[in-house]
Amino acid sequence: IKRIGVLTSGGDAPGMNAAVRSVVRAAINEGISVSGIRDGFLGMHQDRIIDLDRAGVNDIITRGGTFLGTARFTAFKEESVRREAIENLKKRNIDALVLIGGDGTYTGALRLHEMGVRCIGIPATIDNDVHGTGFSIGFDTAVNNIMQNMDRLRDTSSSHHRVTIMEVMGRHCGDLAVVGGIAGGADYIIAPEEPFVKEDLFSKIAQAFASGKRHALICLCENIVNADALASELEATTGIECRATVLGHIQRGGSPTAYDRVLASRLGDYAVRLLIDGVYGKCVGIDGTTLIATDFEEAINNPKHSHVNEYISLSNKISL
Ligand code: F6P
């Protein structure tokens, strides 16, 4: 391999830059050149590709987001579009790709792999919803963002003796809600892995307030129930004042934590080593502290390794 192309795709995640930096430096150390592809598959199709050298990735380890840019480019599902994008790689002598993102990125990578492009995927999404890794890059930073914001909500919620609902992201995965909720000391966590029974929430809140509790925090995963509607219904049913906050994209930004920087650095280097060893068509990940590689097909078609059930039973023990 003489030249590797690197791209970030899908929702940005803190630590993507650290992963790109690691890929660039690990490759250059082995005498391999690196091209950075702007805005994921979109930039690959539009031939927006730059040369990256060691200095080109200076000072990015501290930065959230992705300096290469990202996009959700649905037209990449079409084979003709992918063929045009592959022509751009050939024209620039890019003979392998490292693709950093979530399961949408892996699907694009699998299609490219099937068309003969050497690909390795690196998991990066705050949702932690990809198979083939215990943790994806960005999850830890987002959990910390959730925790810090829940601490802030606790201040105002306790001052006003209210119930506060905080909605977090996760798409259809409860990891952010459950792990962030435990870290923030949530009194009740609503995650898609466990059926949500409104009456259970309302009666637990009512009982807790009846026995002296003066405020409560609820951590809610997105795409389950409307946070404002739930707050109104809780207030109407229990008579206890309730407010809702949707944390939104704030949780996706900011400087990556040490954990995410180290994970990204390890996975970036591992991706390059696999390509050098002639291993393609896989995504890298972490199992405990061990680096692993999984076929794209397996990663896409299987549920992720989840810690959520174990965490839900913990949360049930230590919350309301
Ligand atoms: O996949 C990451 C994620 O942040 C999800 O948690 C969320 O549902 C989605 O992206 C939001 O997407 P967008 O960036 O298109 O608003």
SSE order and pairing:
Elements: E1 3-8, H1 16-29, E2 33-37, H2 40-45, E3 49-52, H3 79-91, E4 96-101, H4 103-114, E5 119-123, H5 139-160, E6 163-168, H6 175-183, E7 188-190, H7 198-210, E8 216-221, H8 227-238, E9 242-246, H9 258-276, E10 282-287, E11 290-295, H10 296-301, H11 308-318
Parallel strand pairs: 1-2, 1-4, 4-5, 5-10, 6-8, 6-9, 7-8
Antiparallel strand pairs: 2-3, 10-11
The structure holds 6-O-phosphono-beta-D-fructofuranose.
Catalytic activity: beta-D-fructose 6-phosphate + ATP = beta-D-fructose 1,6-bisphosphate + ADP + H(+)
Binding site for substrate: 125-127, 162, 169-171, 222, 243, 249-252
Binding site for ADP: 21-25, 154, 185-187, 213-215
